Amino acid sequence: MIKITRSKIPTCRIQSQPGSQHTVCCFSFTVTTKMNNHHHRLLRSAIAAKICRSTRTAQTLSAVRWNSTNAAVVDDEGYKGHCMLAPFTAGWQTTDSNPLVIEKSEGSYVYDVNGKKYLDALAGLWCNPLGGNEPRLVAAATKQLNTLPFYHSFWNRTTKPSLDLAKELLGMFTSNEMAKVFFTNSGSDANDTQVKLVWYYNNALGRPNKKKIIARTKSYHGSTLVSASLSGLPALHQHFDLPTPFVLHTDCPHYWRYHLPGETEEDFATRLATNLENLILKEGPETIAAFIAEPVMGAGGVILPPKTYFEKVQAVVKKYDILFIADEVICGFGRLGTMFGCDKYNIKPDLVTIAKALSSAYMPIGAVLVSPKVADVIYSQSNKLGSFSHGFTYSGHPVACAVALETLKIYQERNILDQVNRISPMFQDGLKSFASSPVIGEIRGTGLILGTEFTDNKSPNELFPPEWKIGAYFGAQCEKHGMLVRVAGDSIMMSPPFIMTSNEVDELISKYGKALKDTERKVEELKCQLK
């Protein structure tokens, strides 16, 4: 007996084959058969196929997510059509395709529900430098949960872990003196806090018009209303009516992509600083409150600043009494080979945003570091302004703070900067050895962060057709070979755990090379189809 019904919650994933020249329309149905008293459910694609030679029409269905093998992966739990509205995920994906469900982590690896092992080359979301299953962090959380699982930090009441962590952070950040720490739950709400803090500061000084914030194209500062506005990525603005009017954007400092013929890095930096000053003068210096920047731009593609860039930009903002906000959410705590990105690029910020590696992602926590310049105004004007009426229920959560404190102890006791600087040359040199590939435009990075941008003929101006989805294809091949990376358009990004061994770095380089070979073959196939 064979019974065919439409399936709302299919139980396996079907992937399109590499190099397919078919345009395929799919719907899901369930085939139930009874054979030898055993029932088997098998999701199949009902295919209406039309062979075509044109790459423009021979596209892999956007609704099909590449799996880690070339065969269907059985998902006995039936996660397709799950109940989450997932972040940074197309709405159809949560209904029409199976998610990759990660079940456990060990060191530099994570495992999915099918038992497949992946090298986590992004450390979660740039945030898990100590890897999975660090017993000291688990113990710190457990101890605090058994002692004081929660108390708030409102109305001058707080907990000892939050006080201890604030003191520790002020001692660790040495690029510029900091006076106070405000705790948040993430980098996004920390950057929202930065804007409110800057406004509060200028109101205290009697400057009600000095409220605009300048950020940079391709930057990422979070996804809440204000932090998404600060971010310079179109996807965070489109369909959300963003950015807000008080946010302005200036040039992305990507030398390879945006420099003029014959322009040196220093010349490029000078031009960008001049453009920033012109923007300030156009808007009116009396209206510009702050400038925000990541030392190295992360989600925008791992974009390193050109030589002398921050020196020149800082001179401009200082000239017009504009606060400098350093977004250290990705760069902070060793990612670049220095404790903070500000140390590497000699940035002297007025305000600093931290999160992610603060707790190695074992607990959600972020923070704002406040310089004496800002903190003194809040103190001196408090009789006039009253309460600093901003905060979150979980600001300074004792369990998160206890885990963060233990994380910082581990960084210090294990000389984490020495570890990063020991393996980062292997990581950088090994991956940059692939730079001659005909599908790679640029490989860029420093410390344990790296980006690869795919272009044709090694030119920033010769992009692959967007429907080819070369970046996504490379990411899928990495997954097939057992490695997870970040894909953004035709760029991929990597920021592996600090705890990687030399053998794991070699494994990462090997998997990258295999995925690159697959991608080179795919590009050749697509080009041949155009002829």
Task: Produce the secondary structure layout.
Blueprint: E1 2-6, E2 12-13, E3 22-25, E4 28-35, E5 38-45, E6 48-51, E7 73-74, H1 93-96, E8 102-106, E9 109-112, E10 117-120, H2 123-126, H3 135-147, H4 160-172, E11 180-184, H5 187-204, E12 212-216, H6 225-230, E13 247-250, H7 255-258, H8 265-283, E14 288-293, H9 309-319, E15 323-327, H10 341-345, E16 351-354, E17 366-370, H11 372-380, H12 382-385, H13 398-413, H14 416-432, E18 440-446, E19 449-454, H15 470-480, E20 483-484, E21 486-488, E22 491-494, H16 502-530
Parallel strand pairs: 10-20, 12-13, 12-14, 14-15, 15-16
Antiparallel strand pairs: 1-4, 2-7, 3-6, 4-5, 8-9, 9-10, 11-17, 16-17, 18-19, 19-22, 21-22
Helix pairs in contact: 3-13, 4-13, 8-9, 14-16, 15-16
Keywords: Aminotransferase, Pyridoxal phosphate, Transferase
Family: Belongs to the class-III pyridoxal-phosphate-dependent aminotransferase family.
GO molecular function: adenosylmethionine-8-amino-7-oxononanoate transaminase activity; pyridoxal phosphate binding
Key features of this structure:
531 residues; alpha+beta; 7-stranded mixed β-sheet; 4-stranded mixed β-sheet; 16 helices; 19% strand
Descriptive account of the structure:
This protein is of the alpha+beta class. The protein contains 16 helices and 22 strands. It has a seven-stranded mixed beta sheet with strand order 11-17-16-15-14-12-13, sandwiched between helices. A hairpin with a 4-residue loop joins β9 (109-112) and β10 (117-120). α8 (265-283) packs parallel to α9 (309-319). The longest helix has 29 residues, at 502-530. The chain is globular, with a radius of gyration of 25 Å. It starts with a strand and ends with a helix.
